[in-house]
Design brief:
alpha/beta, Aspartate Aminotransferase, domain 1, Aspartate Aminotransferase, domain 2, 2 domains, 4-stranded antiparallel beta sheet, 15% strand, binds 3-[O-phosphonopyridoxyl]--amino-benzoic acid
């Protein structure tokens, strides 16, 4: 390759196919379908591929580029920190200013008494850390048998062994012989699929009480914690009925089990609050963060620790035997500081809550009128539509017809990234979208639903 002429799409695709194993990808199928799409640059809420196509990024990268692309302040923050101190660790009684300042800012922004943070490089590592914090906490209190963690089916908590075990994705479990012992799952509050005949209030209570049933089944003295996303993201933007979270909170309080809110997607404005827990009135003991904390510009995650847990861990003494080389990486922390300060100074959270999300909700809801849409739901700037064959019965298209993937492919060909989770289409655009972007997103989605319906009819 000469420096003067960068490779073109075909060369990139062939090197990619030969050398690069992608996450969550069927490589044989990708090769048969013509290879990977190569994203070369991005600006604002648009990404551009190597063929010059401009695509509205309806997924904010992977639920993370909340401030959109091309924010020079974030680039400058990383560059300045790399010049000053590109790396040092937080082990052996050392630390550095970006980690200190970010931990302070996070404790100011978080709800309740969250005064400690343990930094990681990702959301998976954040949840892996939570498992250790939870078990360490109960052991320090002389309750080492209180070690089982209850999670939910179809949750996504990451891809490390602990993260994938906490996740409730059956395909991941089957392939990897998971979950590891000490992690069990209850059913999710997915009303469209599981509770169509019930009122939302009834269904929410019923699904929350599955937690109580599970605690009683396995024995309250063995249950350490419950972990859940305030709104399930990767599982298909599953928004629980209003009755769900208060009942979960009651159960956690009553049986003295820790409540972990996995806010890797919902923190930092996605639901129109700094933390999604505040929207639902959840009072978690631990919160997982990642993604939006740096707007995705550099990798960073963390476990936010409330005083209930933090004080036990600190006051009881003894080493917490856990940590990563990149726990609190200085450049990542500097970018997180810059990103959170922009969010605060530009009132991005308020803008989502008061302006963009209400507009988005109203425009997104119109998709429910489409002949192959069984439901259109949204909260903040997270949304889903359910593709169905029959609106009245909610009957799905046959699995082999791959309605969701068809729709996704039409979308990308027509300038929109919209993700398919089976036949549930989801979006989670950058928090800086304007009304005109929302219009563009919904217009393309409608047109691609038309194309999907036509192609399904012809199949
Ligand atoms: N918790 C939640 C709620 C997540 O959404 C993780 C933990 C793990 O974070 P890391 O940084 O380890 O990836 C996530 C990640 C998808 C998709 O297909 C979603 C995620 C990751 C990859 C794909 O929607 N979420």
């Amino acid at each position: 390759m000469s420096a003067a002429s960068p490779p073109g799409t075909r060369q990139w695709q062939s090197s990619d196919q030969r050398h690069h194993l992608h996450p969550f990808t069927d490589h044989k199928a990708m090769a048969e379908q013509g290879g990977s799409r190569i994203i070369t640059r991005a600006e604002g809420v648009y990404i551009y591929d190597s063929e010059g196509n401009k695509i509205l990024d309806g997924m904010a990268g992977l639920w993370c580029v909340n401030l959109g692309y091309g924010r020079q302040e974030l680039v400058d923050a990383a560059a300045a920190q790399m010049q000053e101190l590109p790396y040092y660790n937080n082990f052996f009684q050392c630390t550095h200013p970006p980690a200190i300042e970010l931990s302070k800012l996070l404790s100011e922004l978080s709800p309740g008494n969250f005064n400690q943070v343990f930094f990681t490089g990702s959301g998976s590592e954040a949840n892996d850390t939570q498992v250790r914090l939870i078990r360490h906490y109960w052991a320090l209190l002389g309750r080492p048998d209180k070690m089982t963690i209850i999670a939910r089916k179809n949750a996504y908590h990451g891809s490390t062994i602990a993260g994938a075990s906490l996740s409730g994705m059956s395909a991941m479990h089957e392939q990897m012989r998971l979950p590891v012992p000490g992690i069990v799952h209850i059913e999710q509050p997915y009303q469209f699929a599981l509770g169509a005949d019930m009122s939302p209030a009834q269904f929410g209570l019923q699904q929350a009480r599955l937690l109580e049933e599970k605690i009683l089944e396995i024995g309250v003295d063995t249950v350490a914690a419950f972990i859940a996303e305030p709104v399930q993201g990767a599982g298909g933007v599953i928004i629980p009925p209003d009755s769900y979270w208060p009942e979960i909170q009651r159960i956690c309080d009553e049986y003295n089990i820790l409540l972990v809110a996995d806010e890797v997607i919902t923190a930092f404005g996605r639901l129109g609050e700094w933390f999604g827990s505040s929207h639902f009135g959840i009072r978690p003991d631990l919160i997982s963060i990642a993604k939006g904390v740096t707007s995705g510009y550099l990798p960073l995650g963390g476990a936010l620790v409330s005083d209930r847990v933090g004080e036990v861990i600190i006051n009881k003494g003894g080493e917490f035997a856990h940590g990563f080389t990149y726990s609190g990486h200085p450049a990542a922390c500097a970018v997180a500081l810059a990103s959170l300060r922009i969010m605060r100074d530009e009132h991005i959270v308020e803008r989502v809550r008061e302006r963009t999300a209400p507009y988005f909700k109203q425009r997104w809801a119109t998709l429910a009128e489409h002949p192959i849409v069984g439901e259109a739901r949204s909260l903040g700037l997270m949304a889903a539509i359910e593709i169905v064959k029959d609106k009245s019965t909610r009957e799905r298209f046959h699995k082999d017809q791959a309605a969701g993937s068809r729709c996704r492919d039409f979308c990308v060909d027509n300038g929109l990234i919209m993700r398919a989770v089976g036949d549930t289409m989801i979006v989670s655009p950058p928090l800086v979208v304007e009304e005109r972007h929302v219009d563009e997103l919904v217009d393309i989605a409608w047109r691609c639903l038309d194309l999907t319906a036509e192609s399904l009819e012809a199949s």
